[in-house]
Design a protein that fits this description.
By secondary structure, the protein is an alpha/beta fold. It has helices at 15-20, 23-38, 59-71, 98-104, 133-142, 146-160, 174-177; strands at 3-6, 46-49, 90-93, 110-112, 129-130. It is 39% helix and 9% strand. Strands 2-1-3-4-5 form a five-stranded parallel beta sheet, covered by helices on one side. It is globular. The protein starts with a strand and ends with a helix.
Length: 180
Amino acid sequence: KGVLLLTNLAHPMNRDFRRRGVRGEQEVLRHSTKAIADVGLKNNEIVWRPHPILSSMSGAVQQALLEYARSIGISPFLGAQPPSPSHFRWFLCTPSTVAIDCLVDGVLPIIVNFSGPFEYPSLEEVPLIVSDGESFANAMREIDSEENYLRMYDRAWEAIGPSERIDGRFGLTKLALIGQ
């Protein structure tokens, strides 16, 4: 199955959203459609799940984003529980701890980042970080090989994966233990 794209840029806590409204989210959608076309997929093979907070935002924000998505051939998934990334050939997400959740579930994310430094520095250890349609498509091709996928997954897991529990209550990532 095609591509799962989870985004969180249309969010009141996102500094880019406060400055530019839905444009950041629209850029991700536009670049995603270019990338999937470059690897031979059609727009209907992308499942896009915006952050659930979108449903509580103003009607104008919702309309601007959802109409844009539909105008470029992407249908949003607005259900309560997104499909599992493991059911898709590729998993793309904007910078979020959801990328770490996916690693825990055995899925290597491709992180889509247009906004500079990560709020969560451990995400910088994910080997596939893209910022335009061409780099999306290249990353998708690169991990189409199972050998490359597993090598990159192992590298990310080694850098970010859960540490041993310190006191039996709180798990930390390895990077948190070394002050990253």
